[in-house]
Design a protein that fits this description.
alpha/beta; Rossmann fold
Length: 303
């Protein structure tokens, strides 16, 4: 089985409105897949289709190598999910809330203490949930999703509304799951900074379309700094540098180095000066991941 999740041309329409369009998502085992996009981009609709809560208008969904429409119950037994806010009984303790769920899904009692340990709520398991912070309630929701030892965990905006301490707690918990338990995690968010600190791969969705899908490292590579050089006779200078196999592009009256290591920059400046060129300026231009994200989503919105 190559992929834990694979969608092919997945689409969903509500009347004339197209919420998800031709989505080809692929998630491998053990990944933390950051599903990233602005609010209203189609993330929650996609997640609802993955969980069998909503029927696709067209296309297909395979989870664990099986079609979700033909093997829904079998697939869902191996998925844990937290979509929107977790539901709980405020007048019951954390342990009692999990006991209610445990009886429904029929797992051993010992599993309650195990998941409370995983989400670091063991010391408050006897406290009523109505006194919990929002971060603690989110962790309890994740504990409930982990009770049946799922192979896949799907989390929809799990850090929404949390303070910085709560965000860090959830982030560290999510990062530990593939390492400690071999779990695959799909986490949706509109915050690139959060996904950047958790995900191993990322899919960017805009207006229902997947506009980027690759490793987080590849996204960082796209955001890598460029070195811009302004010098005399740019055309001749660029031909000279291409002759010694320096990756570059000429933009207007400047040379942009595409792989700007310190050694490369020093070599370029030395070569140009040696060949009689005047070097007026050497400038580093950085593009943040946020800028890349906005560029991708703006392109999606213009389609």
């Amino acid at each position: 089985m190559e992929y834990i999740i694979e969608t092919k041309q997945l689409s969903k329409s509500f009347g004339k409105e197209r919420a998800v369009s031709g989505m080809n998502m692929t998630i491998r085992q053990g990944e933390i897949y950051g599903f990233l996009g602005p609010n209203g981009a189609g993330k929650t609709t996609t997640i609802r289709m993955l969980l069998g809560l909503m029927k696709a208008s067209s296309g297909s969904i395979q989870i664990f190598g099986k079609d979700i429409m033909k093997n829904k119950l079998e697939i869902l037994r191996n998925i844990g999910s937290l979509v929107e806010n977790p539901s709980y009984y405020p007048h019951l303790t954390a342990h009692e809330n999990l006991e209610v769920i445990r009886k429904v899904i029929n797992v051993p009692k010992a599993r309650i203490d195990e998941v409370l340990e995983i989400v670091r709520l063991s010391d408050v398991k006897g406290k009523k949930v109505k006194g919990f912070s929002l971060g603690m309630k989110q962790r309890l929701g994740i504990a409930a999703a982990l009770l049946h030892q799922p192979k896949l965990l799907i989390l929809d905006e799990p850090t929404n509304g949390l303070d910085p301490a709560g965000i860090i707690e959830i982030r560290e918990l999510i990062k530990s799951l593939p390492v400690r338990y071999g779990m695959t995690v799909l986490i949706s968010s509109h915050l690139l900074s959060e996904i950047d600190q958790m995900a191993t791969s990322v899919g960017v969705v805009s207006k229902g379309e997947l506009v980027f899908q690759d490793s987080i490292g590849q996204m960082r590579q796209i955001a890598k700094a460029k070195i811009i050089i302004q010098c005399s006779n740019v055309v001749h200078a660029s031909q000279l540098l291409k002759g010694i196999e320096i990756p570059l592009e000429v933009v207007e009256d400047s040379i942009h180095l595409l792989e700007p290591t310190d050694e490369c920059v020093a070599n370029v400046v030395s070569t140009l000066v040696h060949e009689g060129h005047q070097v007026y300026r050497v400038e580093e231009v950085k593009r943040s991941l946020e800028e890349i994200f906005l560029q991708m989503t703006e392109k999606g919105q213009r389609r």
